[in-house]
Amino acid sequence: QVQLVESGGGLVQPGGSLRLSCVASGPIFRINGMGWHRQPPGKERELVASIGSSGSTNYADSLKGRFTISRDNAKNTVYLQMNDLKPEDTAVYYCNADIVVRMFSRTFDDNYWGQGTQVTVSS
Question: In what order do the strands lie in the sheet with 77-82?
Fold first, then answer.
């Protein structure tokens, strides 16, 4: 069973930094795109950033310059470096990945989500 587990969330003061990590595990044949979404309190989930298997990146316009997404393919891990954090960045952050699983000589492609990690920006 494929699992995505996030870590690195917590409470940080405005202007501070956090680095989120998300590790994928299970019968993984290949990981295609990976990404981070967030859901602020009382709002819908929104895209933060995504990264392709070759390293190409995409960011929400409002977050460019403060957030950086990266991945380590050898570790099946995606990271989100968040700098100059603001109270409006408070949200549950979720990672997701497009993962190909190989079972019984067949491959299955599906999108998986982590359980989320809370990020709170407050003084």
Answer: 3-7, 18-25, 77-82, 67-72
Tell me the H-state helices in 12-123.
none
Residue 64 CB coordination number (10 Å) = 12
DSSP 8-state class, residue 1 = -
pLDDT band at 103 (very low <50, low <70, confident <90, very high): confident
Statement: residue 78 has pLDDT above 90: yes
Average pLDDT of the chain, as a whole number? 96
What pLDDT, on a 0 to 100 scale, did the predictor assign at position 117? 97
Both tokens assigned to 15: 């202007």
What's the length of the chain? 123
Residue type, 41: P
Burial code (b: 16+ CB inside 10 Å, e: under 16) for 82-117 equals beebeeebbbbbbbbbbbebeeeeeeeeeebebebb
Task: Return the closest-CA partner of residue 76 out of 1, 13, 5, 12.
Answer: 5
